[in-house]
Amino acid sequence: MAFKSIKILAILFFLLLASTISQATVFDVKTYGAKPNGDITQALAKAWKDACAAQSPSKLVIPSGTYNLIEAKLQGPCKAPIEVQIQGTLRAPAVVTKASDSWVTIERLDRFTLNGGIFDGQGKNSYGKHCAVQEYCGKLPMNIRYNFVTNSIIRGITSLDSKQFHMNVLGCTNVTFDHVTITAPENSLNTDGIHIGRSTGINITNTNIKTGDDCISLGDGSKQITVVKTTCGPGHGISVGSLGKYPNEEPVEGVFIRNCTLTNTQNGVRIKTWPDSHFGTASDMHFKDIIMNNVGNPILIDQEYCPWNRCKLSVPSKVKLSKVSFKNIRGTSSTPVAVKLVCSGGPGGVPCQNIEIGDVNLAYTGPLGPVTSVCKHIKPILSGKQFPSACAISS
Ligand SMILES: *[C@@H]1O[C@H](CO)[C@@H](O)[C@H](O)[C@H]1NC(C)=O
Ligand SMILES: *[C@@H]1O[C@H](CO)[C@@H](O)[C@H](O)[C@H]1NC(C)=O
Ligand SMILES: *[C@@H]1O[C@H](CO)[C@@H](O)[C@H](O)[C@H]1NC(C)=O
């Protein structure tokens, strides 16, 4: 009797489950007129409008094939959870005709799922132009912007050759990026993989990033950010910052980078803040179990970050760094200085506090001398083995 009722309960449970799953109403862009090799812009906008207005969970499907997309705004709020499943490729215009800072915008959505698809930004024509000099890059669109998205999953998507940042995450909470692939050539300036700012609870897992700028960069207000099992390279590495350039930046708090591999990147894991900066804080940041393959500056705190000499190096940074750890970081460095910890200090400075280095094993075999480490305004807490030995050079 007891078994029977359990069985009935189980059946009821599965029926309920099945009915909630089958509740997702499908909106196929085909029925809105999208055809492979054609322009999907209007069909996608119409399908999105209907899917977003649905009272029960909905699923927008883009079948296999390549579609030209001028621009997409997947904006909410929507009435119910919504999934966008892309089996094909979306292709951006090769030449930008109107000024827009993103190609695909995903905005004000809760319980959103983006599942699969290739987003080809066709940025090849815009590479090789120097942003800082020509102020050109700022006008180019990013592949995907996520603005104010909550409790959502981005899974199995590929971003190719973005004209600017591949993905920008702003004002988001509880969003997971899983099995994301990002690819652009090494010489593509300003094509950061995933930039996060003013967002809380963002997880990046099983993600592979090859690009011409930072693989992952965390701006002000990044909180509880976890990156695991992610590869980077080529690219400029995984960065916190740069911080301190603007007034009223929000604190960075809770950064956990684990089990990542960096290969042939300009930098490894770094924290960068501007000298002569505004006040700010960044704390509770932990880098652990990381493999470096031929990486420049594998471990780097740079509070004198001053590209193009656009700042006063003589005035210290006012961004306070605390509770930072680098543990079990091993592999090879492409620069003789494998560990560089340059903190804020001197009159008006805010020295780093509670910085821990444990189990570092980084080799350098190039022609520029033996592997070494540099410290400035810092006394790190040491544990485990240190190769190179910690703070071999104090400046
Ligand atoms: C994020 O997730 C936590 C834990 O599930 C939840 O309490 C919180 O309300 C979520 N935040 C938002 C903005 O939905
Ligand atoms: C992100 O990972 C952390 C740590 O593993 C976990 O506690 C949190 O719930 C995850 N958040 C999301 C949005 O999946
Ligand atoms: C992370 O790396 C550590 C050290 O190499 C290893 O023991 C652990 O199993 C790894 N964890 C995952 C989830 O891969």
Automatic annotation (TrEMBL):
Chief subcellular location: secreted
Pfam families xref list: Glyco_hydro_28
Native organism: Ziziphus jujuba
Protein name: Exopolygalacturonase
UniProt-annotated catalytic positions: 236
A molecular function GO annotation: polygalacturonase activity
Annotated signal peptide: 1-24
Entry keyword Magnesium: no
